[in-house]
Give the backbone structure.
Amino acid sequence: MDITTGNGNLPKVVIKTAHSTAEIYLLGATVTHFQKHGSEPLLFVSRESVFEEGKPIRGGIPIVFPWFGPREGKAQHGYARRATWEIVGNEVLADGSVRLTLRLPKAAEAAGYPEHSVSYTVTVGKTLRCELTVANESKNDPFSFETLLHTYLLLGDIERVSIGGLSGARYLDAVDNFTEKTDAAEAITIGEEVDRVYAGSTVSTELVDPVMGRRVRTDKSGSKSTVVWNPWIAKSQRMEDFGNDEYRHMICIEPGNVRADAITLKPGEATSLRIELSESPF
Ligand code: TA6
């Protein structure tokens, strides 16, 4: 593991293993790159992304915490993805994987919440494993929060992919005033802006990408929500840190716990959100 200077002269951890390479910016503890030897990169990062302290990276796996979506007078999706996290450890596991552990420093924005701690492990090997652990360290107060691993997956052509695992599941359609809907199709296909919040969903999903010739699984635990998002054309043009054509090469599949699935921890309780991203030839 090396700590280098990445884009915007920001500190970046580079991890090389026998099976793969990965990069993690301390800004937001954002995993911006994972690539198995002999494969294409798994994650998408916009060519227009800014790399500035205090601003979220447009791509990779931004951490949404402690709230999801807009909040009056506050930054969308919380402050964790804008904070500079601290490295607390790294270790080589028996199978040759490398595990990096980071923690979220106490932030001014956290003042309104009960005492809590947030740690994050990134395990780089044949697959990419991320685990976000939140602990309520207050003596008396429950701690309620939302969280999401807002994963941007790289793909060959948005109009050629499908996403399996959510057939018939109920979701809130953020493009249609969060109206509750279901999609009976065997797999989700994308031909317009898609922004779906699947609630009460503990299933794994699989992105099938015939152009890149691969399937990408997202396995998860400690999560009851999955958000699926592609900005499509108009929203892409409104996003300053995103190329107008880049919607064609990404899909966000975002495991977490948001809205009705928000988590409340009693004093002393902790919870972990885990994902594992793996790819296989198509
Ligand atoms: O992916 C779900 C979502 O809430 C979308 O509505 C879209 O806003 C996306 O997050 C990106 O949000 P951001 O604040 O990173 O521009």
